[in-house]
Structures are given as C-alpha cells and as structure tokens.
Amino acid sequence: MTEPAPQKPREETIEKFISRLRRAELPPGVFNLYAHNHPVHDTRAGAAKRRENLRRYLKALPDPRFALVGLCPGYRGARFTGIAFTDEAHLCWPGTLFDRTGARAKPWRERSASCVMDVIGGRTDIVCWNVVPWHCHEIGNELSNAEPDAKTLELGAAEVEFFLSRLAPHAQVIAVGNVARDVLASLHARLAAARRSVGAAHGSPLHVRHPAHGDEAEFRAQLAALLDIAPDDE
Fold it and tell me: Is the dihedral of CA 157, 137, 71, 234 positive or negative?
C-alpha cells in the first residue's frame, strides 16, 4: 500500500490555495473575485479583503466533519464575501473578523446564504465551498448569475479537488443542489484518488435540495437531518 504523501502545515496550504484561486485565468463571463476589483461594484482593495475573509474562515475550521458544496458564488452572496453560502448582511457586520467588499451602502443579502447560515449557525465542523469558486455572470451584466460552462467547470474541478483533499480531507461531502451533485459525481474518481493520496477516504456525496431552487423548508429539514440537528437547535 502506498504511503500517504507528507502534508505541509495547514496555514501554508491555505496560502497555496488562495494563490491558486487568485492566479486563475478565466474565460469571459467569469469574474475572479480573489484577484480583481470591479470599478463600480467593489470597494477599494475588495479582492484583498475577500482573500483575507477566506483565509480567516479556513483557519477557523481546521478539521471539518462536513463540507457543503454548491455550484458557484452568487452575486448577492459569496461574490462579495469570498466565502461560499455567506452574504454581507449575515457575515460582515461590525465586530466580526470579516469585511464587506461591496461598494453599495446596504450590505448584500442572499436568500440561499441566509438559509444555510441559519441552519448551520456557529458550528465549526462544517465548511462551505463551491464546485466553481469564481462568479459566473451574464456578459455585460456583472450583477447577475449564470451557470458555468464546460471550461469553467474543468478549472473549478482542479480547485475543488485541492480543497477536498488538502483542506477538508476527512469531511463528508454534501452536494447542495442537483447540478453540484452531478458535477461531483463526475469527479468521483479524481476526488477519491486525491483523498487517498493523503490517507483519506472519499465516498459518494450526500445530497440536499438547493434552497433557491425549491422548498426552503425541505432544504432545512434535509440538511438538519444530515447534520444531526434537532428541531430545537435550528
């Protein structure tokens, strides 16, 4: 049996991951929120703030038991926080370690982020990520959402592979939504090999409905059941 590859300190791995996200060369219609600042929609140094948000988030979750994996950042949510399934209204209020990066006066609020954050609360054994970590939008309309094309999905595949093998190797993956489920299923062999290389196992992801594409109550019930959250804990 092949010995697992020696792993670098977690902080070094986080820095490598953020650098990978920042350096990615993306096709039109995909905004690199970790590298670029939009002249109208972002505050000054918005990308640097998003990198720092992600850095602090990952440092706070050293060995997650669960990884919620969606499709890609929404323009009302992770596009302006740098962290999947979060939004400015719930994450970046005064007194927290996270900064807003949206230029508009009111914090961005996303329904999906609100729902996920409400269910998982302050738990530190759950990490959130996306199959594609950059914001896909309609060309010419940066404040919109679009599904990633095949090229973008392939670029994202390398990053979700790195994420699940190096930063959340022991986490049970939970796909949020049908598209994320299908993409993760197509990557099963890659993810299994990457996790085996660090001495971890990879089973088939669990699955819950996406709160934006169906009944929020059903999403909450499904996720709470998988996370073993009693109704009184919600």
Answer: positive
Q: Taking Cα atoms as reference points, which of 11, 98, 94 lies closest to residue 51?
A: 98
Provide the whole-model pTM.
Answer: 0.92
CB 85 within 8 A of CB 77: yes
- Residue 221: give its domain's CATH number: 3.40.470.10
Domain count within the chain? 1
CB-CB neighbours of 164 under 10 Å: 26
> Phi/psi at 66 (nearest 5 deg)?
-135, 145
The structure tokens 């590859």 sit at 5
Task: Tell me the per-residue pLDDT of 140-199, one tens digit each, with 9 for 90 and over.
Answer: 999 999 999 999 999 999 999 999 999 999 999 999 999 999 999 999 999 999 999 999
Residue 233, in any domain of the structure: no
Range of the domain at 176: 10-227
Question: Are the C-beta atoms of 161 and 199 separated by less than 8 Å?
Answer: no
Q: What stretches of 72-141 adopt beta strand conformation (E)?
A: 126-130, 135-136
Q: How confident is the model at residue 2 (pLDDT cuts 50, 70, 90)?
A: low
Q: What is the pLDDT of residue 70?
A: 97
CA distance 51 to 22: 9
Residue 1 inside a domain? The answer is: no
Residue 118 lies in a domain: yes
List 102's β-bridge partners, or say none: 42
What token pair was written down for 220?
A: 């909450």
